[in-house]
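Morning run. Coffee first, then this:
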Amino acid sequence: AASVGCWLMLVGLPMYSIPLSYLLFGQRGTVLLKVMEQLNETTVPIRDPRTWQNLEGTARLAAMDDLTVTCACIDHGKMVNTNPPGDMPRLEQWNGTAFGPWDDAEPSHIWCGFLPSAYLENWPNIGRFLVFTVLQDTGPTMQTAMQGFLGTLFAGLNMHLMVLLFPEGARGYPCVPEKVADRTNFYVIWVTRDSGYYVERRPSLKAAWDVYAASDDHGGLVARSIFHPDGTLDPHAHWFSEGWEKKVVAKYKSLFEADCELGAKVYSDPNYGSYGEVVCMLDVAIVVFLFLISKSARNTMLFGLSWHVHWMMTFMDPKKGVMQGIDAHVHRWWRSQYFVVEVTAVAATVVAVLATLIPRMWLFNYRVIVDDLNVVTFAITDIWEGAVTYLCGHERTTKRFQVEIAIDSLSDKIAQSKAHIDGAWWETLNMGPCGRRRRLLNHFLAGAGDIKDIIHVVKECVVSERFSEQHNEFVQVVQVAAYNLLRETQALMWILSSACSDGVVDSEDRARIRKSTEAVLADQGELVECFRKAAPPFSADLGDEQLFLFALSCWARKTTDFAEDLCDLEDGKHARAELEGASLWAKDSILGAGWASVKSTWDPSGCFTVDHILFAFRNWLAIFICFLIGYYASGTFFDRYSYVMASTLSFLILKDGSRIVEYERSTKRLLGVTLGKCLPIMAASLLTSFPCVSLPRLLAQGFTIWAFATVFLFVKFNSDVWSYPAGLIAGFGIASLMEPCVNLDDDLVFADKYKELGSVTVAIFIQAILQAILHRRSARQVLADEVRKLTHCLVEGVGAVFSPDIAQMEKAVKEAAAQMKAAKEVAVECDPKMQLCRGASQPFDVAFCRTCLMHMEIVLAELNLIIAAAKDWVPCVSEDSSDEGNSQDTPAGILELMHSRGSLDKIRHQLLESFQLVVEVLPEMLEGTFDRKRLVSVHLAEKARAAKELEGAEALYHECAAATQDLPTDTKELTNDPRVRFTIVVRALQNTARHLGNIEEACIKHSNK
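And here it is:
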């Protein structure tokens, strides 16, 4: 945060440092006025309209003669005023041959800066882009910056297309038909080299003089005049460059010759008058909707939408349109506002990345991914060591809680590591030695770190173990082999981690990996031998112990599979080109990732889901309504042709996939935008005590920018509750703090801010109201639907065990995992704290929901374990692999043999009966529509015993023992032993029944509250 504050202070220097602004942008705008005041050329800004109200006729002309020359918008570099003193200036590009040596002291030699005025006007965009883009790491910052630039670029490309259709946009002037006698208004007409003609109508001469006086604010004037109601030129208010008097008079006459109604606009581009407004409105509506309906990144949407509505409103403003100028060469593409904004976006992208390069505190993801992988490796090995140590003991201790906490935190560590690896892609572009190291570490995380199928089972075994006499006898036999397998697998995992961290797996590394792999395989065989010596019976008494040993063997097997896969990759046996990144179109290469991003952005399966269509429509309707208000509304705090409402709302788009009316977030939006626009005024009032052009003022304003950005960005990066409003305060406030000198004595400043705040408040209210109207269902209703889908998937998965159908089971489990993720996301939005009012419905029980989802997640893990035990072993495949053939699974015959057992029908009936309560009652309880009387009809009170014991399990154990006597056994690995596999399947069914019973119990308790 402090680093970003420093960069904002430096970036803003060309705005609030008068000397630097003069050097970079030349003699124009605010800098010119402040220099004039500093030189005592005038004590009151001569452009202030109130100055002109006390001057008449020749006195006004005398005041004009004293004006310092202003550079035109298109002027840059060294310019020369070719007109004599006292006449209106005419600037031409300086060259030594025509004008002699350059002399800074010569009044006719005018410095107009290195950049045209368009860069001065858009310079604050760098600050706003930087605040909305920068994150706490370099890689993600590069990603969001690129996304913001692409959004700006796409909006700019649309504007270039619109300029081709309508070269001058909606630029026009008021029309008075010839048949209408207009004898009461004064007309002010002026022409500039960069913008062409301007026409303004005023009811009095004094008002016309105000416009006339300000007509040279941006320089480049070639003619200006005031026409009286009788059509004559004002004797004191006209000035023309050579050849321009006839053109201006002809322009005045044309105002009364057009075929139009009184007060209508005559557009410079006749095509715009015919169909331009309709085309522009369609363009706004379509482009906004395309941004929203696509699966573009959020930053792409924010900047694309904001600039699109901003530029289109300016394009449709008759006073602005497209400033083509009077010469064909004036409107150069590199001077256009669209290109200038794109250039400032590139500059902001560079600054955003530089802001993360803090000496001795590097924020590169690439520098931390090795540490992340070491943390993940240590966490995994420590969990297994803690679990083995605890289960090989003889009594329950607090060690089980340490293991449970470590397992619960593992997913967060893996997710953080994965995020850093993804962020490192932007830092390395997946190229060179750094890119190779990143790919290897990603391969390691996807391979050796993939224990999601068994980690929940380990926690269940550790937490539920009771240390019976049978347990102690069994552990006495297998604990040495279990410890040996643990140690060797830990050693292999650290060797793999070290090899991947180096970025190169050389022949020495491969030799160490193969040697360690052989030791793990030998210990696998030793564990099988000890397991046979222990000869555990087919019963539930030692089910958890066998389940744990199976999980331990699975982890060892996954690790050796990954080791072999890594050695094969390095030996060139398969997929080497992908690991090396040799193919330009490889999945992780620049072109491959770009093409994948394009496909995912416009993938119909993602763009046209119901939730995403609703997200797009809600935001589109709010932005488009605000655009229409800004285009048509005038009066109170609305200014016609104002883009403020629509542009601000573009930065406040609703969350994709949100199922609730975001009352709390809308309040934070209003707070963030309001404070972002008010706090800079308060800060500016403190700065007025310093002279405008002075070192104390420069230092004070620089410190104010740094402190403002640092404080609010620090809150943004560190607060879960206030992060969003703090980011808005910094983003909407930083541009105002960069303004050079604000005249707070002028009531117009506060009036403009008041109108801006009023319009933004209306926009936020419109967004919230539309969101409430367009939400057909509450978050609780959506959660109930997601839980129904989840339970149906689990029922299908359990049913596939008894079919048996592994393919159907895997499909159901995969769908259940997706539904579980969706249910967890919606559950967060159901928190009563996020409701505006509770109403008549029962309050949502957060603890009850979490408990039920937790048990259902464990049931899902048990189904995954059944799949692992019931099918032939398939080596783990890296996420980066494109070999689909490796993912085909074949059943091992376990479920088929179990299917013929007589006791299986009783187990199936009990499980499906338990699911009945979950399927029918749980969603209604979560929705708040459950009737307590229905509990009797769904599940009788005397039967509602929370059936945690699976009846028929012992009989199934005995039947499986008899069925497996003649089956061949595997002497190499416990994961291939059919007796163990049968035990795992039955034990997993028992655990499923127990967790379904826990859900039943929670439902019954909840119904009695």
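The beta strands are 78-81, 91-93, 109-111, 172-174, 186-192, 196-202, 221-227, 233-240, 265-267. Good start to the day.
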